[in-house]
Amino acid sequence: MANRTQKDASSLKGTNPQYLIEKIIRTRIYDSIFWKEQCFGLSAELIVDKGMELRYIGGIYAGNIKPTPFLCLILKMLQLQPDKEIAIEFIRQEEYKYIRALGAMYVRLTCNSVEIYKFLEPLYNDYRKMRYMNKMGKFELLHMDEFIDHLLRDERNCDIQLPRLQKRQALEDTDQLELYQSALDEDLDKLSASDSEPEETKKERPSLVSRRRSRTRSRSRGRDRSRSRERDRDRDRKRRASPDRDRRDRDHREDRHRKDDREKRKDKASSKDDFEREVEESNALRAKLGLKPLER
């Protein structure tokens, strides 16, 4: 039968290799047109040619659960169970990114934890873009290092339940793996070295931030000085341009003071006249009554 596992294939994870993919998805793959037309009669060597034709990765999509060609080729590799060297060569080649993704998924499904970390962690330095088809049948952007990170951290990827993976720290404690060295370690060492420099060298070599701050301070001081100079110039210009106005203002103030003085004198005179008039009237009235007049 075309859907049976190869006779000389060994069991993986204690079961048939094809059983690593769930039965309902396996059934959809067997019923798909790509499986019937493109995967029939494939050998381990011919899978490379089909992998070169891949243009995106993904699991199942659409309402009737259609499998992607990437998922079909994964099942075909589990069915044929090619040599480990072929899968490793898929990973090491750098020309075809979708073949690399195919080999990474196969290694994640079939190898042990030590080999998975050993072969997949170097792919963190691959930042190429890939097309990923989601369950709605739409394409999304995915980078190779993101895909590898999902393989090492998530429980499911491309709608496949991934086998359990041991923690890296546990493998390091048992000396099965060496400490992980990232490509960013050199940059981090440079930053730590710059932070640990003595204070004298830091004072002699000012940082870019301090230089920018000094520049901004000098610029702001220059602006303040120029503004104060402009204000002084405007004040002098106004003084020179308006001597007549100052004279008019001075004359106006003097006239107002004179006017106020005259009004005060008038008020005093009028009050004196009123007082004398009242005295005369009162004396006339006292004379009629036979009383003595008032003294002024």
Walk me through the structure:
By secondary structure, the protein is mostly helical. It has a domain at 17-188. The chain is 60% helix and 7% strand. It has 13 helices and 7 strands. The protein has helices at residues 23-31, 33-38, 47-52, 69-80, 84-92, 97-110, 113-120, 144-153, 168-173, 185-195, 199-204, 208-241, 243-289; strands spanning 57-58, 60-61, 66-67, 129-133, 139-143, 156-157, 160-161. The strands form 3 sheets. Strands 1-4-5 form a 3-stranded mixed sheet. A hairpin with a 5-residue loop joins β4 (129-133) and β5. It is rod-shaped. This is Pre-mRNA-splicing factor 38. Residues 221-275 have a biased composition (Basic and acidic residues). It is found in: Nucleus. Keywords: mRNA processing, mRNA splicing, Nucleus, Spliceosome. It comes from Acrobeloides nanus.
Tell me the helix content.
55-70%
Helix segment tally: 13
- The largest beta-sheet arranges its strands as 1-4-5
Rg, Cα atoms, Å = 50 Å
Summing up helix and strand content along with how strands pair, one would put the structural category as mainly alpha
Q: Give the ordered list of helices and strands.
A: HHHEEEHHHHEEHEEHHHHH
How is the main sheet built?
Answer: 3 strands, mixed
Shape: rod-shaped
Low-confidence stretches are: none
Record field, number of beta strands: 7
Roughly how many Å apart are the termini?
Answer: 150 Å
Oligomer: single chain
Mean pLDDT: 81
Report the sheet-strand fraction: 5-15%
